Amino acid sequence: MVKNSKAKFYLVLTIFSLIGQVAWVVENMYFNVFIYKMFNANVNEISLMVSLSAVTATVTTLLIGALSDKMGKRKVFICGGYIVWGITILSFSLIRVDVINAVFPAVASATSICISLVIIMDCVMTFFGSSANDACFNAWLTESVASEDRGKMEGINSMMPLVAILVVFGGFMFFDLSFPSSWTAIYIIIGAVVIAIGVLGCFLIEEKVVKTEENASYFKNILYGFKPSVIKQNTSLYFSLIIFAVFGISIQIFMPHLIIYYEVSLKMTNYVFIMAPAIVLASVFTFFYGRLYDKWGFEKSATYAICILMLGYVLLFAFKGVALVFVGSLLMMCGYLAGMAVFGAIIRDKIPENKAGMFQGLRIICQVLIPGVIGPWIGALVLKNADTIIGSDGREQYVPNANIYLAALVVAVLVFGLVILYKFIMNKKLKEKAL
Hints:
This protein is mostly helical. The protein has helices spanning 6-39, 43-71, 75-91, 97-103, 110-144, 150-172, 180-204, 218-223, 228-233, 235-254, 258-265, 271-296, 298-318, 322-350, 356-382, 403-434; strands at residues 388-390, 396-398. It has a single domain (6-205, 221-434), classed as Up-down Bundle (Growth Hormone, Chain: A). The radius of gyration is 21 Å and the shape is globular. Helix 13 runs antiparallel to helix 16. The model has no long low-confidence stretch (mean pLDDT 85). It has 16 helices and 2 strands. The protein has a two-stranded antiparallel ribbon with strand order 1-2. The longest helix is centred in the first third of the chain and has 35 residues, at 110-144.
């Protein structure tokens, strides 16, 4: 444990993880809604934005994670990164049709320029967010927790995305998202909060001394996790990362379309009130489920989490009524967050000591890049012939259908099979070592 007390550590964990996830929720779930509602973006434009953001997050985490290892410092990247991250969020308040028309009066299509600007600024925002959160904050967490507390910590860390969704849903219900002024206010509020957290971190976070190899080159640090010898020495880590990547693909097939599906396809204008109880229950479930990893280990806790996720998919695919959509959403979110807790714990457990920064890039490749590139395009393929409606500017807008959950279910079955295979291979290795 770091020099600060456990109470102080868990305070930092809670506020930095929560506010970081609030920013990611706005990006991952509401940027899609933003360009869908404000600029009538199509499914391919949304998929492109998600994929480019995933690539940016991965490259950033590889570069900055290795750099923070080389420098032996995390705090400056975390606090400084959160502050600049907040500033980039503020910049989205200026991406509006009326602003573009005022700056470029001769432009033919302000909406197209706005979509392009959102995609570009999403990548810029992701660079600073991934530097602060994905690369350095996660490395700091890995170094700050004893192995026996991994599940407990990941239970808290992994419930934060759902708590963040609840916070965002609750906050957004006071805004009419059909008006540009609402989005302007949202970006100003969230940007200011992220900046404030970065400043607060200067006083709360205590630097963890990172042991570094004095003669190790920065370039070698970046490539460390890709060396065949390292892969051979850490087989269980890389296998668990592969399973995590497939798990993420399943989630990213439907996640970019989730809110649009509720609001447009199911016509649930009050989806916040339906989802809020499910989010609260799933968050509580995840808080306790993380501790089961400490008790059961990876294979058993992962298997149950994936089964819960698959059951949620089945209900969401098969039913459209409010009650069963609620139950399906609850099970889906419980399985998703429990899975995140389990995979997060096993990966932190298997990362070699004093190499946390170098491996954050690999973690993001499997958590963000592979799912973010493959998942949305599977979703786009599934929705290729989906129904359409005409938007306010005369452009067609797609209407997501339940087939995204069927596709996600097929991939989740593959995840289940890989976990069983992991158990078989690891048991075989243990028997070989015993002989």
